[in-house]
Amino acid sequence: MHELTDSDYDILHAMENIVDGIAAMWGEHTEVLLHCLDSRNPSIMKIANGHITGREVGAPITNIALVKLNEGQDVSKAYITKSPDGKTLRSLTTVIRNKQQQAIGLLCVNFNLDAPFQSMIHSLMPTIGAHCDHGVTAETFARNNDEMMHSSIENVREQVTTDSSIPPSKKSREIVTRLHELGIFDLKDSAQIAAKGLDISIHTIYRYLREIRAH
């Protein structure tokens, strides 16, 4: 370990949202934390679901974390540990490095294997009832930008076409508006692809975009 620089801390602070994101994805039985490897005070600088091990920001780095740091693997294999109160945890440690390839932090994930099964499922699917009532939003898992754009255009076109509250004369503009809100028109050749997919002229696309951006 070494004394971290301001740029090192910038990298670590940029990782803080990742801690919250992983915890939000996997629920209350998954502890996620960001260790700072500053030699002056190697400690936790961000933690989510700290109730699993009883730790909070400022807690010192663990002996196992140091072992994983010195194993030479930036992403460890999953391993089993025990929390202070005896929970069985499935853990994984990822080393965070700066541009000089120095280790500056650790991203650690600890999943509580002793949590009740039904509680695990509930934490993974907290809004399952809402999904059943209102339908699940389709996400495009495309292999390239063109495929993603074609799929997005088709999805939006179908939504607008089947929406009887939108007058037929305004459907094309509504489709362009929704595609604009999705950021589709920030991509290369998107206007040409949208014009072809919607069977309208590219000049119409540009006119709609000028009007939308003007507002």
Automatic annotation (TrEMBL):
Chain ranges of the YheO-like domain: 12-118
UniProt xrefs under InterPro entries: DauR-like, DauR-like_HTH, YheO
Domain of life: Bacteria
Transcriptional regulator DauR-like HTH domain residues: 153-210
Name of the featured protein: Transcriptional regulator
Taxonomic source organism: Photobacterium kishitanii
